Amino acid sequence: MHLPPHAVRPDYAGGSILNLAATLGAHHGVPTHHAPYRHPLPLDGARHVVLIVVDALGAGQLRDAITRGDAPTLATLTPAPGPVTSVFPSTTMAALTTLHTARAPAEHGYLGLTVWLEEAQAVVNLIRLYDVYTHAPLADAGFLAAVPSLYRQLHDRGVAAHVVMPAAYQHSVLTRWACDGAEYHPYAQPEETPALTAATIQPGQPSYTLVYFPEYDLICHGSGPDSPEAHAELRRTDRIVADLLAALPRNGDTLVVLTADHGQSPQPPDGYVDAITKKVMKTALRGPVAGEERAAYLRPQTGHHADLEALLAPHATLLNADDAWTGGLFGPPAPADPRLRPRVGDLIAVPHPSHAIRRPTSPAPMLGLHGGWTAQEMLVPVLSARL
Q1: Which of 150, 265, 299, 316 has the smallest number of CB atoms closer than 10 Å to its CB?
Q2: Number of Cβ atoms within 10 Å of the Cβ of 8
Q3: What is the CATH architecture of 17-266+373-386?
Q4: What ranges do the domains of the chain cover?
Q5: 259-290: b or e for each residue (b if 16 or more CB lie within 10 Å)?
Q6: CA dist., res. 95 & res. 111, Å (int)
Q7: Contacts 24+ apart (CB under 8 A), 62-67
Q8: Nearest to 10 by CA among 373, 350, 383
Q9: DSSP state of 184
Q10: Which residue stretches, if any, does this entry annotate as coiled coil (predicted)?
């Protein structure tokens, strides 16, 4: 599997958020077949682990924020001494689900915002659970729970598991599966998270708490990661993290780790490519394009593979999906679930930097995107503090 020079391959051998989640879970006794996280963490003797996830905070974005003076609290935490990657695709559905399950996308099956589901014979939006072409709801979503959540495994081992997340997400199908076993602490405003998080740490029982901030990602999409609005939101997040750290007990037995699911890259409006038109969908494809604007999954009609390659090659790197799957792009091949392989189609198109593949089912153009394999999208921070 040949990747272009600018591509950052997910480091599932020890330097990815998959390995981070697996190591944090293993500290509390959850078995894993994944490589341990490569970089040192002060885990010895820690009874409580708090994992803070700032959606879309790439390593480069954090570095720039610290230089601007926008992240004084985060600047005081200990950074990983080497690079850490997201998973592929570098998108919330794949990466956050990895943090919830300590499994690779090739194991948990949430391989993009939209995927082809053999079980439904449709391309389905995995958040809203409907056919993207007809908008018909997915009748039965139970099969999507392919692996147990990390929280369920922690709970079964006597570890108190908690998630501190927006109230709006509490009752979704994905949350009910991915957060199974955890006590859900909903918040209406992020400023509520310090008190909610502190309340999860009790002296009598070991605990694991995930705190999730999605707001920065939403603003980066709408205004761009380099915008004043994104900078302001990151300053707000930094202040909330400062309050959260101050609210936690300082008994020496709590480890706080902060990371992101992926980063964001600026998306110039003129970089959107309208190659997948309704006509192309009807003549060259066996259904709607799945995946992301920055990582598209296609199922060519017989005899149209070369046509699609010629159409997309000027704008994207094209991969045979079988090669990408067996080559470990979606996770180490050994634990990959072959039942999930059809979800990524037959041909994968990863747009060149600053490009994005639009199609008739795409949302309005956004000024920040992720899903691909540039350093902006793939490299994430891991910061830690022992309290």
Answers
A1: 299
A2: 19
A3: 3-Layer(aba) Sandwich (3.40)
A4: 17-266+373-386, 272-369
A5: bbbbbbbbbeeebbbebbeeebbeebbebbbb
A6: 9
A7: 62/381, 65/231, 65/234, 65/238
A8: 373
A9: E
A10: none
Average pLDDT for residues 375-386, to the nearest whole number?
98
Inform me whether the pLDDT recorded for 154 exceeds 80. yes
Environment class of residue 82 by beta-carbon count within 10 Å: exposed (0-12), middle (13-18) or buried (19+)?
Answer: exposed
Which CATH architecture group holds 272-369?
2-Layer Sandwich (3.30)
- How confident is the prediction for the chain on average, in pLDDT? 96
> Tokens in use for 193?
């998270």
Tokens linked to 326: 């067996």
> What are the residues whose beta carbons fall under 8 Å from the beta carbon of 306, sequence distance 6 or more?
none
C-alpha distances in angstroms, 321 versus 133, 210, 296? 22, 33, 11
Helices 228-247 and 59-68 cross at an angle (nearest 10°) of 90
Nearest to 149 by CA among 177, 170, 189, 129: 177
Q: Catalogue the E-assigned strands of the chain.
A: 48-54, 78-79, 84-85, 114-117, 122-125, 130-131, 160-166, 183-187, 207-213, 254-259, 265-266, 272-273, 290-292, 295-298, 316-320, 347-351, 356-357, 368-369, 379-380, 382-386
Phi first, then psi: give them for residue 283, nearest 5 degrees.
-100, -30
Residue 354 C-beta-side C-alpha neighbours within 13 Å: 4
Instruction: Evaluate whether 124 touches 115 at the Cβ level (below 8 Å).
Output: yes
User: What amino acid is encoded at 310 in this protein?
Assistant: A
